[in-house]
Amino acid sequence: MNKKSFWQSGHKPTLFGAFLYFDISFMIWGMIGPLSVVIANDYPMDPLQKANLVALPVLGGSLLRLVLGFMSDYIGPKRTGQIGMLVTFIPLLLGWLWVDSLDQLYMVALLLGVAGASFAAALPLASQWYPKEHQGLAMGIAGAGNSGTVLATLFANRLAQHFGSWEAVFGLAIIPIFVVFILFSIFARNSPHRPAPKRLSQYASVLKQGDAWVFCAFYCVTFGGFVGLSNYLTIFFNTQYGLSAVHAADFATVCVIAGSFFRPVGGFLSDRIGGSRMLMYLYAGAGIMLAGIAFLPPLALVVVLLFVGMMCLGAGNGSVFQLVPQRFGNEIGLMTGIIGAAGGIGGYFLPLILGNLYKLTGSYMPGFICLSLITFCAFALVIVMQLKWRNSWMRPPAPATDEAARRIGELKVDVH
């Protein structure tokens, strides 16, 4: 792919706006994960309660992505993004001024899901400006906004420590999302090539197609693995290796960086070698890394394994969404919401798997073995679907035209 041709196509201000919206939304969506260790000082929690707390924003995001995906299709992704940011102010204000019990905190955590649902507006907003040959990179750049998780793990606990309360972090988060709302409103535009809204019956027909569920399964593992680990790693480092809240979040940040910044790499490489082939390599790598983590090696080694594993999962996110527009180009808004919801469900269950098995066994080994096996199941599914897709919509280009074949035949005759 010619890099210059990518930048000459599409609409750069919109791509920038989609990235900013996604980035700040993911920062807010991921705040509960690192803050959970600090929050536990005010509201003591067992391993399962901690897992529930960090999983609830992911569950809220997965449910609301369907809503925002529907809205993106009908009223446009720009207006949907603006509404999403305005609604995000509600849980931030509640977390800052209202929470007085663990049950109320659970409610705020669930409402934070509206920030995670930004996926269903930001990606269609960016992708609808670009042709199919550049979809992987365009959606990878917009999707790299999941780097907002890095901001959450890096600064949330430090700010809580500096201001003396975790509630202050919710109040401070209002400032950047207000700024991004203004910038997004100025720079972002809906594509003139945006598909017309679909009827409800057409939405149902999409879900009847097996490929839609396959993409959901793929993203459930890649994105679910990335966001679930991003939210849980601070707890893991604090519990398993005895690190302080700030230091545990710092190590989580190192791992989250890999998943965040390799998403566009996954999209770019998928444009070149094919999304399904790229996914096959990435699932294999992630599965091996998770299996190694299950042995709970020394801190330095486990950070390396998590870094590489998160890198594979993050790049896998870009690979999945390199494939989706090729198969469901006219339903990209809806499919982004559906597939994003599936990814959120994966991210919801991952902390619960780790938290439940840790509570039952007193070790993280069974949990990471389970995650590794799930990843290898996804690897097997890619192989099966790759064979099927080659005979349908993902046909490779013909090796030669009829004219070229005729000339090759003439050359063979001349040689003989």
From TrEMBL:
The keyword Repressor does not apply. Belongs to the major facilitator superfamily. Nitrate/nitrite porter (TC 2.A.1.8) family. Residues 14-390 form the Major facilitator superfamily (MFS) profile domain. It comes from Paenibacillus kribbensis. InterPro entries: MFS, MFS_dom, MFS_trans_sf, NO3_transporter. This is MFS transporter. It is a multi-pass membrane protein. It holds the Pfam family MFS_1. One of its GO terms (molecular function) is nitrate transmembrane transporter activity. Keywords: Membrane, Nitrate assimilation, Transmembrane, Transmembrane helix, Transport. GO terms for biological process: nitrate assimilation. The chain crosses the membrane at residues 20-39, 51-71, 83-99, 105-125, 137-156, 168-191, 212-233, 245-266, 278-296, 302-324, 336-358, 364-385. The keyword Cell inner membrane does not apply. It is found in: Cell membrane. One of its GO terms (cellular component) is plasma membrane. The lineage of its organism: Bacteria, Bacillati, Bacillota, Bacilli, Bacillales.
